[in-house]
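Record 1 of the preview.
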Amino acid sequence: FEITDRLIVDLDKSDFSLNPSDILTLTGKLYNIRDEPIGGILRTTLADQDVNYVLPDSDFSIDITVPENIKSGENRVLLTFEDNGKNYKDKLIKLNIIPNPSRISVEINDDLYLPYEKLRAGIYLLDQANDTIASEDLNIKILKEKKEVYSDNHLSGIFTYPLNNSLEPGEYILAAEYAEIQQEASFEIASLQQIESKLEDQTAVITNTGNVDYKNSTIILLFKGEGGITIEKKVSLKPGESYELDLSKEVEEGNYSVLLPNGEKIDEVYVDDNRNIFKKATSGFADITGNIVANGESIKSTITLVFLILFLIIIVAIAVLQYQGYPIMHKIAKSSK
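->
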C-alpha cells in the first residue's frame, strides 16, 4: 500500500480567539483520498503539549484545554490526522490568546533619595506568561502615611518622578493598581537642610530650598573701602519660603561689595539710604563716640560728651511738654521758691 498525506480534513472552524484556560472545541469530518468517511487517530500540539485522540468515525468533536500560562497573541495548533494505513494529514489552526492581566511588578532603583533627585522605577503589568501588557493603563500613586502625594495613570514601563523639597523626610509608598491587582514598594526621602541666596537690586533674598524647617542665623557681609559691615538676622523659614532683606534699610548710602551666605561676592552694588530716623541717629552717635576713641581722647571727654547729649535731650523734652500745655516751667519755678 502507499502512504500519502492526502487525507481530507474538513474543519468547521479554523480561527479562534480565546483566553488562557479556555476550552478549544474542534469539530469536523475526516475522509480518505477517495472521499470516503473514515476514522483514525488525531494528535494535537499546542504550546509544546501533545495530546492523542481516537476518532471512531468520520465525524469528530474534540476539546483542547488552553494552557493557563500560554503566551498571549497568535498561537498555532498543529493537528496531525492518521488512518489505519499510516496515511496522514497535517492541519494548522490559528489561535489568538487574549492577555490575562495576572500581576504587577514594581521595582525601585534605589531605597534612599534626596530632594531634587528623580525617583525611578520599573512598573509593569504582566500577563499569564509573565510578559508585559503594554496597552493597558495602571494607576500609580505615591503615598506618605496613607496620604496621596501623587496619582495618575501610566502605561507599563519606566516611571520617573521628580522629588522636590515639598516632600517631607520619611518613608513613602509607590503603589500600582490595575482592576483588582495591586503591588507596592517603599522608598525613603532623606532630610536636607539647605538655603539659597541671591541679590535682587539692593535686596538680599534668602530661600529655604531644603525639605525641613530652617531656623538659624544668616550673615551678610558688606565691604566699603577699608571697613566692613556685618548684618546678622535670625531666619525661620519653612521649605520653599523666602526672606527678603532690604540693604538700604540697614546701611548708609554708597557702593558696596556684598558677600552672600552662599559665598557669592557681588561688587559695585549701589545701596540707597532708606534707614529710619532711629537707625540713622544711633549710627551717628556710634560714629561720634567712635571718633573720640580713634582720636585718642580720654575717657573723661567721652563721659562729658554723653552728659552733654543727655542734657540736651532733657531740655528738648521740657520744651515739647511746655508747648503742649503742661506747666513744667511754672512747677519748676514754684518748687525753687
